[in-house]
Amino acid sequence: MAILWNEQDKTLTLHTKHTSYQMKVDKLGILLHTYYGSSIQGDTSYAIVCQDRGFSGNPYDAENDRTYSMDVLPQEYPCHGSGDYRTTALSVTDHNNVSGCDLRYVGHTIQSGKYSLPNLPAVYAEEKNAQTLIVTLRDAWLNLQVELYYGVLEDTDTITRAAVIKNCGEQTVTLNSAYSSSVDFLNGKYDLLHFHGRHGAERTKERTHIDHGMFSIGSRRGTSSHQHNPFVILSRSETVEQFGECWGFSLLYSGSFSCVAEQDQMNQTRLLLGVQPERFNYTLCPQESFVAPEVAMIYSEQGFETLSHRYHELIRSHVCRGSYQFSRRPILINNWEATYFDFDGEKLIKIAKQASELGVEMMVLDDGWFGSRNSDNSGLGDWWVNEEKMQGSMKEVSEKINALGMKFGLWIEPEMVNEDSDLYRAHPDWAFTIPGKKPVRSRNQLVLDFSRKEVVDHILDSICKVLDNANVAYIKMDMNRSINDVCTAAQGMPSEGKILYQYVLGVYSFMERLLQRYPDLLLEGCSGGGGRFDAGMLYYCPQIWCSDNTDAIARLHIQYGTSFGYPISAVGSHVSTVPNHQTGRVVDFNTRGIVAMPGSFGYELDLNLISAEEKEQVKQQVENYKKYWHLLHNGRYYRLTDCEQDSEKAVWMFAAKDGSEALVQVVTCNTNCNSPIEYFRCRGLQPDAVYCEQESGKEYYGSTLMNVGLPVRTISGEYKAYQLHFVRK
Ligand code: GLA
Question: Which residue among 420, 604, 614, 661 is the active-site one?
Answer without folding.
Answer: 614
